[in-house]
Amino acid sequence: MPHRILNLDEVADYLHLACEDVRALVRDGDIPHEMRGGRPVFRRVEMDAWASRRILGLEADRVAAYHARTRATANAAGLTALVEEAFIAPALASRTKASVLRDLVALADRNGLVHDSKALVASLVEREALCSTGLPGGLAIPHPRHHHPWLFGRSFVVIGRCVQALPFGAADRRPTDLFFLLGCQDDRLHLRTLARLCLLAQKTLLLEGLRAADDASAMRAALLDAEHAALQLEPPAKRPKGKPL
After folding, report:
1. At what angle do helices 187-203 and 8-15 cross, to 10 degrees?
2. Contacts of 218 (CB under 8 A, 6+ apart)
3. Are strands 176-183 and 139-140 parallel, antiparallel or unpaired?
4. CATH architecture assigned to 79-233
5. How does the average pLDDT of the chain come out, rounded?
6. Distance CA 13, CA 11 (A)
7. Which pTM value belongs to this model?
């Protein structure tokens, strides 16, 4: 349930962090929480938004460290299982933020991935209202505000490459042409996959490969090659210095 209250152990497990890291975030006021009976509790709906924003804002080394933690705490589904060739649109005609969100959802819907396309579009718009999922480098990773399992037929990543880059609110103020619509039935899979996509964008030649690809098949191959390269080079999970997330 999206409004479930989590205790410290549960939120540490959900965020792929050590309990000591969560305590540090609470102590510094860096994570949304309430105090009940002298102990912190966390609303899961707030954790969804908070964790996504933090992951999207991590620098390369810190996203690599966090991604290594997610691999150590669970068997993350590889992108092979989440992205099929039919889930990729190499020539989206979208020209606005609103239209690209609709077009990505429409592609997911055509592939039988979405049970309620209108609700998904609304949740994407709600998430973008919190802060843009556009990132420097011309990519964005839109995802729903709430990860209701009933929205999706399965977990997936839909990829769109726009013919013309469009304003999407990235911090570098440059237009965006590559979009990864992330739809996961499980919240923890969502965070792992979000971290993996950020890792590939920052640590590999993924974006260049996607832009140079001739078609959907070549785009999928570029994605999987980048994933393989990143995982081969990734160091063992370790506690990063400074803020844990």
Report:
1. 40
2. none
3. parallel
4. 3-Layer(aba) Sandwich (3.40)
5. 89
6. 5
7. 0.88
